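Task card 7
Instruction: Convert sequence to structure tokens.
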Amino acid sequence: PRNKTRNWQLLSHRIGHSINKYNPTGMLLKDPVDNWFLEGFSSYIEVVATHEVGIVTDQSYWNTLYDKYLRVLRNSPEDNFALADEPDARGDATEFLHYTKGPLVVKLLEIWVERKSGRSLVGFMKEMWAKYGRYQEPFPLREELETYAGTSLDDFWYHFVDRPGHVVP
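Output:
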């Protein structure tokens, strides 16, 4: 295709999985309720990485994802599982959670962490990979993120992950 942005996004997605999922370099999540983060982070990094390296001039792809999110909510509200229930989703619901809702929630998590702590989500993943990468031991996402941010994220988990609520930027 003439516009190769999507190709670069997909390459970034695969690199994201080499950090958080793929054997032998990735990490094993300790709690299955956090499985949504594997695809959510890799889909999030597609947008962030292509912007950071100058392939795209802005991060307007978030608008595209949010438009898709709203369209699915209108047409298939039954697909709006809680992200923590991602292992129970099937078919279109899985696709929606992985590639639309998940990355939007990770984007909100990035904003939440930066506002609460002044630290970055990418910095968090760098630290976690050094500690848990290459399947050194199971990665307790929630506990480590709260330690990293220096604050409770219970409100975030409640509003955006543990129940099937709406993603509201």
